[in-house]
Design brief:
Layout: H1 3-9, H2 33-82, H3 96-120, H4 126-130, H5 137-163, H6 175-205, H7 214-247, E1 254-267, E2 270-282, E3 285-292, H8 294-297, H9 308-314, H10 332-347, E4 353-357, H11 359-369, E5 372-373, E6 379-380, H12 385-396, H13 400-422, H14 428-440, E7 445-448, H15 451-457, E8 473-480, E9 490-498, E10 506-516, H16 525-528, E11 543-553, E12 556-562, E13 565-566, E14 570-574, E15 577-586, E16 591-600, E17 608-611, E18 619-623
Parallel strand pairs: 1-4, 8-17, 9-18
Antiparallel strand pairs: 1-2, 2-3, 4-7, 5-6, 8-11, 9-10, 10-16, 11-15, 12-13, 12-16, 14-15
């Protein structure tokens, strides 16, 4: 075998090469080692840069999302302003059709901006970032806020805007009837929107509250504030979608007895039932059929049985046969049933429900409709209607007949303005806002003679119902016991404080302060007249009140003082509530303080507060003591 043959027969060893003379050389892979190290460095750098790139991406898209949410907020501000009454708009405001168009544009624009904000916060970097402990909390907040805004704009406000009737340029008519048609058409959408609003509210309150990024915390807080306002409104609109069509006569004519309460003489539901009217509703068209005053109803006896507890507490005041005592109880359905039964006894006609309003409610309405002119040139305005009907009129007319005629004329004038606004599609949205605000204050109350409707009403403050369920409760109710009109000058305050924990119930102190601001001279005699014929000497301006404190179900009174001195209180039960009461003489220019020491079995949280709507609102301070642990 030759040398050449021998070299070929030698097997090649892996990793060796031959040089020019056939001697094995260095390993070829050694030349590739620097390349591999470079690739490794690139991979490591890329891995290190990825979180930074993700953070940068989140920062940039977060800023863009914030810009979109800010734009959406501006659109929602435009939407809100489009339904808020302009101070001097009046019924012929030329901007109303434009405002109606702006509502649709604002909702569409807000929905588009919110959707873009949501898209920007759903990229590939956002979800993994939310999983990071501590660092991911503001990312979760921003992402959740954008999603909530998207749902609010698209699934809540859009259906709500569609349910509002569109104003027809150059036309005023058809406001309430158009609204009724739109509400019936979109009722299912409105109900769904209310459900979404409640879900969004829960989602927003579930987002992280205190993160390392203050800007995210502020955004969450602002959004929470908005949904806290919106969700109850949507719930009310959902209820209205079910209640208003039948109550406004969609299935047939309806009639309602409307009472104007005079809060210058306090009663349980607000004020003395004075002027009244009969309201007719037919397929959304509203009209008044008749007006009258309390003299006409003074001695009409209502054939109605309100139960043993009612009779035990109020029977001695003859509430079913003395019109002026018909609403001593703060539970409005009692008064409504008496008024409905009395009207039936008086006229032979039944009504489908009862409504009650007061001069403060008229002030809200007149701020939307503009002034109402009375015969003789007197104008009722939002600024003067309370003073004119509850103070000045007593100085203007010393004759009772003329004064009561004045009240009826005022009611007619205001009603005329209201009917015009209700039939004007340009003013109706602002009027509905005023109605909603009035019922929230407890100054507008509604009762239905139809049981299914009444059950729905009693889920809202609009019904004026005294709740009969267990739980902490606090209510101060005054009834004028002097027969005067001095409650125009009455101030009230309540401080409710729970202290410590004890077996069988928590100690609670309720401090009630009453102040009579009436002057001692210069008031008309009818205002200061004391029909109670006091045995002791009094001055003009001195008042007398029956003061009742409504505690929680099952509460006990352990003691009470009046101006620091022990005082006995009478006790009753009304709709399960413990009620403690006494008559208090309240001289002009004086204050008196009633302190009740109670044992409340359910006072583990802040109480539900009964706020009697009088001329001056009650000042209330609550100091709950927190939960007691066994």
């Amino acid at each position: 075998m030759t040398e050449r043959t021998i070299r070929r027969a030698v097997p090649r060893r892996p990793g060796l090469r031959r040089d020019a003379v056939g001697v094995p050389g260095p390993e070829r892979s050694g030349d590739r080692a620097p390349g591999r190290r470079r690739a490794l460095r690139v991979a490591l750098l890329s891995a290190a840069a990825l979180p930074l790139a993700g953070a940068a991406w989140i920062g940039v898209t977060g800023l863009l999302a914030r810009s979109e949410l800010t734009a959406a907020q501006r659109d929602l501000d435009t939407l809100r302003q489009s339904v808020v009454p302009a101070p001097a708009a009046g019924p012929a405001s030329a901007t109303a059709p434009t405002a109606a168009r702006d509502r649709g544009q604002a909702v569409r624009s807000a929905a588009a901006h919110a959707a873009r904000a949501h898209d920007l916060t759903t990229g590939p970097a956002w979800y993994p970032a939310t999983l990071l402990p501590f660092l991911g909390e503001p990312v979760t907040t921003v992402r959740g806020a954008a999603y909530a805004a998207d749902r609010l704009a698209g699934d809540v406000l859009s259906p709500l805007a569609r349910s509002l009737p569109a104003a027809t340029p150059g036309s005023r008519g058809g406001g309430m009837s158009q609204a009724l048609t739109a509400l019936r058409t979109h009722a299912p959408d409105v109900v769904r929107a209310a459900r979404v609003a409640a879900e969004v509210r829960a989602d927003v309150h579930g987002l992280p509250r205190s993160t390392w990024l203050p800007a995210a915390d502020r955004a969450r807080a602002e959004l929470a504030e908005q949904v806290d306002r919106l969700a109850p409104v949507m719930s009310d609109v959902s209820l209205a979608a079910r209640l208003l069509p039948p109550m406004l006569g969609a299935q047939g004519e309806r009639r309602y007895f409307l009472t104007f309460q005079n809060t210058a003489e306090a009663r349980g539901t607000g004020g003395l039932p004075g002027a009244f009217a009969v309201l007719r509703a037919d397929r959304g068209r509203l009209s008044f059929e008749r007006f009258g005053n309390n003299t006409e109803m003074a001695t009409v006896k209502a054939n109605v049985d309100l139960g043993a507890d009612f009779t035990a507490r109020y029977g001695g005041y003859n509430p079913t046969s003395m019109w002026n005592n018909s609403n001593l109880s703060p539970h409005f359905p009692y008064a409504a049933r008496i008024w409905a039964a009395a009207w039936h006894r008086h006229t032979g006609r039944r009504v489908d429900g009862v409504l009650a309003i007061d001069p403060a409610t008229l002030s809200r309405f007149l701020r939307v409709t503009g002034p109402a002119r009375m015969p003789g040139g007197i104008q009722l305005t939002a600024d003067n209607v309370v003073d004119l009907t509850e103070r000045a009129s007593y100085a203007m007319y010393d004759d009772t007949t003329r004064r009561k005629a004045f009240f009826v004329k005022a009611a007619r004038a205001a009603a005329g303005r209201l009917m015009a606004a209700a039939d004007d599609s340009r003013q109706l949205p602002a009027l509905l806002v005023a109605v909603h605000d009035a019922q929230g204050d407890g100054r507008l109350k509604v009762w239905s003679a139809h049981a299914a409707e009444q059950r729905l009403l009693e889920t809202r403050s609009l019904a004026g119902a005294l709740p009969d369920t267990p739980g902490p409760f606090a209510g101060v109710v005054v009834n004028n016991a002097a027969g005067s009109k001095l409650d125009y000058y009455l101030d009230r305050s309540l401080i409710w404080e729970a202290k410590g924990c004890a077996h069988g119930g928590r100690p609670v102190t309720a401090t009630v302060t009453l102040t009579n601001r009436a002057p001692t001279a210069g008031l008309p005699g009818y205002v200061t007249l004391r029909e109670d014929r006091p045995r002791h000497r009094t001055r003009p301006g001195d008042n007398r009140l029956m003061v009742s404190y409504y505690a929680g179900v099952g509460a006990d009174l352990t003691g009470a003082t009046l101006d620091g001195r022990p005082v006995p209180l009478a006790s009753d039960v009304e709709r399960g509530h413990s009620v403690f009461w006494l008559n208090v003489e309240l001289p002009a220019g004086s204050s008196r303080t009633l302190v009740l020491h109670l044992r409340e079995p359910h006072a583990d949280r802040a109480p539900v507060v009964l706020r009697q709507p009088l001329v001056m609102p009650q000042r209330t301070v609550l100091k709950p003591g927190g939960a007691c642990h066994a």
